[in-house]
Amino acid sequence: MITLANDLSVLGTSSRAYLSERHEHFIDGRFVAGSSGKLIAVVDPTSGQTVGQVPAGEAEDIDRAVAAARRAFESGPWHRMRGGERERLLLKLADLLEANAQEFSEIESVNSGRILPATRAFDVDLSVSYLRYMAGWATKIHGQTLEPTVPYVPGGNFFGMTLREPVGVVGAITPWNVPLGQAIWKIAPALATGCTLVLKPAEQTPLTALRFARLIAEAGIPEGVINVVTGYGETAGAALVAHPGIDKISFTGSTQVGRLIGEIAARSMKHVTLELGGKSPMVVLDDADPEVTIPGTAMGIFANHGQNCCAGSRLFVHEKLFDRIVEGIAEAARSIRLGPALAPDTQMGPLVSSSQQARVMGYIKSGREQGASVVVGGEALPGPGAYVLPTVLADVRPDMRVVCEEIFGPVLTVARFSDLNDVLRRANDTQFGLGASVWTRNLDRAHWFIRNLRAGTVWVNTHGVLDLAVPFGGVKHSGIGHELGEEAIRHHTVLKSAIISLQNVV
Ligand code: NAI
Ligand code: MG
Questions:
Q1: Are 268 and 78 contacting, i.e. CB atoms less than 8 angstroms apart?
Q2: Residues at CB less than 6 angstroms from ligand 1
Q3: E strand residue ranges, 174-237
Q4: Are 366 and 61 in contact (CB under 8 A)?
Q5: Fewest 10 Å CB contacts: which of 21, 32, 162, 186?
Q6: 446 CA → ligand 2 middle, Å
């Protein structure tokens, strides 16, 4: 048995203190116990040990949170607040998160199994930047003025305009792969636009969202504007989606649950943003630079342990470069140091949970059974930690489950090609359409792939780079709508038109 458990004694005093506290829902500006008294154990995936408990929220808790969010949206200080004031609150929130960065990063690493530099960069620092980016938008939301003709009213004098108004109460449901980061992607645009929100974080990783709720209170955000209810998807999540007091659902997670949410939301005409699964291709052309392509594609799949919606999980390499690129990626995979999230020399921690480990190992097993060969990895580490070795599978066919389905672990499939039209068809031969990358030094080919790959984002000579200013969303079964950038403002507002009949003054 290998023990790669976190040494929790290295934690700072504030995160250690937070982990030992009792956790409750955050509703209407206060921390409150769950209505049922049932709890969910929060686990450190490096050891399988429980590091805390949160309430298993139910419909009753969701009802209270939605009622608070509704009140805050329709009346009270938030309802009257102007853009400049919301900007100030967002900036305050960003400062508070920045001041507590180390504590948030430590809590996130213990709970999600990801190394401190990763939680620091993607859950904390990027969130600070996004809060500031969205603070800027709060004063820049605007409609248009229009010049109506109204031909059937001769001599009429009409003025037209549009207003962008907040969509209302948002129900946000987040996954466990970048827990605080995903929560802030939902919270920041809601605050910028004047919406209110009820967040249901993933049951595996609820701690940083609850810790963030304290900052919400500290920043002086009015009661009821942001609420956090912890719980399982099938109970708390489902109650949020079905709730008549919710105007929009913003969901990130599996395609399977996204479809269900889309169906239910449609019945009550809720707006939806669905950011779902992927099976993103990385296409390496014969003119690609191996020095850039090998580390870049290795990161494309292994970043965040492959627990990335836009992970580059299907690699296609031109036959001229196939052996060199695949051997280079295999070498990179072999050299990644697995270990506990808190250890300074660790490069990759465990997956988020033992059930995710079992799921990923099930895929690797199915790949072997269907005839794939393991170039590197293919094993879980024995022991209580949820570790899976970075894995490359070759000799794959398009009908294999490892090629068709999202694995959400450090597993890459590799295939060769010789013809551009053929590889384009194969890259697009998937139900998903979240990301795709092309690796080439040829400008014309890069543009041809950008135009013809069916994906929400196409990267060139990199994979998976996201930025706050660049909208992110999927096509096909990877989802509906966009997060980040100006699009996030559009997706949290509704357009109202006004027509005014003016009398001639003289
Ligand atoms: P999931 O989609 O079930 O969970 C994501 C969130 O949805 C969680 O907060 C969960 O509580 C909630 N949820 C689950 N069922 C719900 C329901 N009926 N109504 C409302 N909310 C519900 O994902 P899960 O089970 O954690 O992971 C399974 C697979 O899903 C992964 O292996 C991966 O392939 C995929 N996934 C994809 C993500 C992405 O960002 N594209 C994120 C998480 C998972
Ligand atoms: Mg699920």
A1: no
A2: 173-175, 177, 200, 202-203, 232-234, 237-238, 241, 252-254, 257, 260-261, 276-277, 309, 359, 406, 408
A3: 196-200, 226-228
A4: no
A5: 21
A6: 37
At residue 3 the predicted structure's pLDDT band, cuts being 50, 70 and 90, is confident
Residue whose CA lies nearest to ligand 1 atom number 27? 254
The closest of 292, 297, 288, 295 to 320, measured between CA atoms, is 288
The residues, ordered by sequence, that sit 6+ positions from 331 with a Cβ below 8 Å of its Cβ are none
Q: Are 241 and 464 in contact (CB under 8 A)?
A: no
Q: Which two tokens stand for residue 251?
A: 């969901």
Burial 329-367 (b: 16+ CB within 10 A, else e): bbebbeebebbbbbbeebebbbbbbbebbeebbebbeeb
User: Is residue 309 annotated as a catalytic residue, yes or no?
Assistant: yes
Residue from 87, 275, 406, 483 carrying the catalytic annotation: 275
- The SS3 assignment for 35 reads coil
**Which segments of 225-270 does DSSP mark as H helices, in order?**
238-242, 255-267
pLDDT single digits (tens) 156-178: 999 999 999 999 999 999 999 99
Hey, which of 174, 199, 232, 257 would you mutate to test ligand 1's pocket, going by the most ligand atoms within 8 Å of its Cβ? 257
Nearest to 186 by CA among 246, 273, 72, 83: 273
- Give the position of tokens 């895929």: 363
Phi and psi torsions of 331, nearest 5°: -65, -45
Question: What is the pTM (predicted TM-score) of this model?
Answer: 0.98
pLDDT at 2 over 80: no
Alpha-carbon distance 37 to 357, whole Å? 29
Atom of ligand 1 nearest to the CA of 276: 41
Of the pLDDT bands very low, low, confident and very high (cuts 50, 70, 90), residue 504 is: confident
* Cα(201)–Cα(443) distance, integer angstroms: 42
Which atom belonging to ligand 1 lies closest to the Cα atom of 258?
A: 2
Q: Which atom of ligand 1 is nearest to the CA of 309?
A: 41
Question: Looking at residue 461, what is its pLDDT?
Answer: 98
Q: What is the pLDDT of residue 1?
A: 60
User: Among 61, 254, 407, which is best to mutate for testing ligand 1, by the most ligand atoms less than 8 A from CB?
Assistant: 254
Comparing CA positions, the residue from 365, 340, 355, 390 lying closest to residue 2 is 340
**Per-residue confidence (pLDDT) for residue 230, from 0 to 100:** 98
Structure tokens at 275: 């950011």
CB 39 within 8 A of CB 48: no
Pairing of strands 435-439, 158-166: unpaired
The residue whose two tokens read 């660790």 is: 346
Atom number in ligand 1 closest to CA 360: 32
**How far is ligand 2, taken at its centre, from the CA of residue 443, in Å?**
41
Q: Is residue 506 very low, low, confident or very high in pLDDT (cuts 50, 70, 90)?
A: confident
**Which residue among 108, 203, 223, 309 is the active-site one?**
309
* 398 vs 409: CA distance, rounded Å: 19
Picking from 73, 75, 99, 52, the residue whose alpha carbon sits closest to that of residue 196 is 73
Based on the residue annotation, tell me whether 195 is a catalytic residue of this protein.
Answer: no
